[in-house]
Amino acid sequence: MTEKPVCSCGCSCSDAESAEGTVNRLIFPPCAGVANTGQLTNCAAIQLTEEGYGGTSCIALLATGAKGIVSAAENADEVIILDGCPVRCGGKIAESLGIHVTQTIVVTELGIEKKGSREYTEDNIETVVSAVWEGKGRTE
């Protein structure tokens, strides 16, 4: 499991808490498709949720413009998009709805090759999870 960072405020970020209280984070993995990179974003999002980083939400529902999920994304403290490849489907969906994305991780930019199979390793998942915890895709 990835080591959780210590905030600059000196507190532990376990369970996504900061000195001000709980950080409301929504994690959107893209469509799983048939490629390994899409599949592993779903696994990484689940692991991040289990580790207390935030909650996984449905990018397909967001794409429909459903008021509840759009409102949740607009009111989240942080929105994290896990895109499998340079096509950036998840990021494009958020952008089309005017959702401010705090962090975008593109799996192929982490050195993981996109393949036409569903094969990936636990190390691949850990690479994505670690990148999120480390804030490698932060836009702010």
Structural features:
140 residues; 4-stranded parallel sheet; disordered N terminus; 5 helices; alpha/beta; 14% strand; two-stranded antiparallel ribbon
Summarize the structure.
The chain is α/β, with parallel strands linked by helices and 140 residues long.
Tell me what the structure shows.
By secondary structure, this protein is an alpha/beta fold. It has one domain (24-134). The protein is built from 5 helices and 6 strands. The strands form 2 sheets. It has a 4-stranded parallel sheet with strand order 4-3-5-6, with helices on both faces. A hairpin with a 2-residue loop joins strand 1 (17-18) and strand 2. Helix 1 (36-50) crosses helix 5 (122-134). The radius of gyration is 14 Å and the shape is globular.
